[in-house]
Design brief:
The chain is an alpha+beta fold and 319 residues long. It has helices at residues 63-75, 98-113, 123-134, 140-147, 186-191, 199-218, 221-228, 235-238, 245-254, 279-292; strands spanning 3-14, 18-38, 42-49, 81-87, 150-152, 165-167, 173-180, 259-262, 269-274, 297-302, 310-311. It has 2 domains: 3-168, Ribosomal Protein S5, domain 2 (2-Layer Sandwich), CATH 3.30.230; 173-302, Alpha-Beta Plaits, CATH 3.30.70. The protein is globular.
């Protein structure tokens, strides 16, 4: 193929006690990267739409381009290059894995051009693309966007084996994403996370994460939701950065959500609930709570996207 277009979905990470180790792909919006072979060596970004002119075109700083360049290097291709076009379908600095979607789509688009079809062979390249966004190594968003489903990430060390684990997704699971008209840079949110914790705090956090994974595997959605609010380390440090965030989180719980927490670094919030609940009504309560705090917000109910990054059907590919 001389040109391919790849879609990568939004994602949500952390789920309270799963800081940097849990991520889930969301059905609905995402980013699309179109990749073409070029006679010019290396990777070039030709066009970005949907970003309001804010994202870098510099291939050394653009997440999709960094991921594509890593694939090119790993495949050992010489004398050829790749040109990229990126269509952003996700808001920036929202907690919905915007940079991760671009990196996942860039890695898979380059991989498909070069004949690398196994997405697990692209994990390191996608991780390198995500690293370009905020300078940290965390694969929770990008691995779930690339692979789909609910993903446990034992390690995000690019020098070590990368072996994310796909977790069972209870069929009744629903996630409510409440996205305010706010932005919170990931760098800023990561800066307030405690650098040192007590052994007691570590033990409690590890135990809550284990309970969350067990609850998901057994289909205990109420138990899983309770683990989202068990975090005493990360979200309590970050919530003060989100105007009205604490009040909205409490409103979600009062309205019937099994649990709620920041979506990744925020400012969006995610509530865990199930198909039989009044998921639309719970979302409306959260929107109203943010309005009371003077912040416009919207809510959307998501299933888990089990497919992850994928080729856009050829009829929709722009040649």
């Amino acid at each position: 193929m001389n040109a391919v277009s790849v879609f990568a979905p939004a994602s949500v990470a952390n789920f309270g006690v799963g800081f940097d180790v849990l991520g889930a792909a969301l059905d609905g919006p995402g980013d699309v990267v179109t990749a073409r072979f070029s006679s010019t060596r290396g990777v070039r970004v030709l066009e970005i739409t949907g970003d309001g002119g804010r994202l870098p075109r510099d291939s050394r700083r653009n997440t999709a381009a960094v991921a594509a360049a890593a694939v090119l290097a790993e495949c050992g291709v010489r004398g050829r290059g790749i040109e990229l076009s990126l269509a952003k379908g996700l808001p920036l600095s929202s907690g919905l894995g915007s940079s991760a979607a671009s990196a996942a789509a860039g890695a898979l688009a380059a991989g498909l051009l070069l004949g690398a079809t196994d997405r697990r062979d692209l994990l390191r390249a996608a991780l390198m693309g995500e690293h370009a966004a905020d300078g940290s190594w965390h694969g929770d968003n990008v691995f779930s966007s690339l692979l789909g489903g609910f993903v446990l990430v034992p390690s995000s060390d690019p020098a070590a084996p990368l072996a994310p684990v796909s977790l069972r997704v209870p069929p009744r699971l629903r996630l409510i994403l409440v996205h305010p008209a706010l932005e919170l840079l990931t760098r800023r949110a990561r800066a307030v996370v405690p650098k040192k914790i007590s052994m007691a705090a570590h033990t409690a956090h590890a135990g809550a994460l284990a309970r969350l994974v067990l609850a998901l595997s057994s289909g205990d959605l109420a138990g899983a939701g309770a683990c989202l609010v068990a975090d005493r380390l990360v979200d309590p440090s970050r919530l003060p950065l989100v105007p009205g965030g604490r009040a909205v989180l409490d409103a979600l719980l009062r309205a019937g959500a099994h649990g709620a927490c920041l979506a990744g670094a925020g400012p969006a919030l995610v509530a865990l609930t199930e198909e039989s609940a009044d998921v639309v009504g719970i979302g409306r309560v959260a929107v109203a709570a943010w309005k009371k705090a003077g912040v416009t917000a919207g809510a959307r109910v998501h299933r888990i996207d089990r497919r992850g990054a994928r080729l856009v059907p050829r009829a929709r590919t722009r040649e």
